Amino acid sequence: MDVGASVAAVFREERGRLLAALARRFGDLDLAEEVTSEAIEAALARWPVDGVPPRPGAWLMTTARRRAVDRLRRDRTYAARLAVLQVEADRANPEPVTGDELPDERLQLFFTCAHPALPAADHAALMLRCLGGLTTAEIARAFLVPTATMAKRIVRVKKKIREARIPFRAPEPDELPERLPGVLQAVYSIFTEGYAASSGPDLQRLDLAEEAVRLARILHRLLPAEREVTGLLALMLLTHARRNARTGPDGDLVLLADQDRGRWDRTMIEEGRELVVAALTGGPAGPYGVQAAIAALHAEAADLASTDWPQVVALYDVLLALAPSPVVALNRAAAVAMRDGPAAGLALLDELAGEPRLRGHHPYPAARADLLARLGRSGEAASAYREAIELAGTEPERAHLRRRLDALDR
């Protein structure tokens, strides 16, 4: 196996677990990130010579811990401060972490990042950085803010964790209702970046999507009675089931209407449908459960035309009441266009024209362009397609929109 590919695979699998274990051990997220990166760099230098070790995660953990200890020995002030944090960490987590075992403590890190002492707006960004492995630029694009702004936010929130001595531990039962929504949002943010990449040459980043699904499965195993955890896992499975049909042989974007549904993962769909039932049973539905129900309607339909669009619109009405947002309103308008025709959908889109949170969001002008083209308003459609092309983040999306524009011109 190629050493570079081996390191990349190990990094994807072990980075979050390694970072979480080191953060718990030393009580400092910056230090944990730095020595994690140094361990990866050491692997890139050593493994081509010595070969990939049989237990690469343990090798990385041992290397990272040694780097951390060396750094603390060189910096007595830093070591003294961390010694206080270590006493607190040991009280909360009495079991030691060794180089021979690498426990899965990522959920502790997720809940630490979602601590109520931290700004709610920063939870997902920090989790994406620490556990999703996204770069600061990718996170900034996902949140539609400048890279420099996002970098300052991440530095600020990590400093808050350090100075407030927020412990790296899982929440107590009475803390769960306050902490869980931030964790769910962060996992879903990782998934959406993987399902529809914010930038780059590829439409999908399957490694991120699959990592998010795996994290959602862990959450579901630990919190099986939490129906929104179930709803989130169902939503992700039903959406990820389409991954093989979303792109053509050359990586081109394939719209839902044109996808070969025979390539959808039926096993994943069936699992998702069962989870939807559980998510919607036993009390009022939550936003993730409702979104999962919408995804299930798409999964059950033989094609786009036979989709139960009245039910889809009704579910979007529920979702708008539970979690109102311009993106939900945009999706509802598209569903109304399928139910009632393009003019009805376009009227709803025009009502969103002044929504600042849709500026820079290319699906909005792309949806308008499609409906305008269906109404025969070619000039306006062409203008909307050009706007969408300028805003699209990935090359497959831009290429698809250029083809639609070319077809309109012809």
Automatic annotation (TrEMBL):
Residues 179-279 form the DUF6596 domain. SUPFAM superfamilies: Sigma2 domain of RNA polymerase sigma factors, Sigma3 and sigma4 domains of RNA polymerase sigma factors. Residues 113-161 form the RNA polymerase sigma factor 70 region 4 type domain. InterPro entries: DUF6596, RNA_pol_sigma70_r2, RNA_pol_sigma70_r4_t2, RNA_pol_sigma_r2, RNA_pol_sigma_r3/r4-like, WH-like_DNA-bd_sf. Residues 11-76 form the RNA polymerase sigma-70 region domain. Keywords: Sigma factor, Transcription, Transcription regulation. Belongs to the sigma-70 factor family. ECF subfamily. This is RNA polymerase sigma factor. It comes from Actinophytocola gossypii.
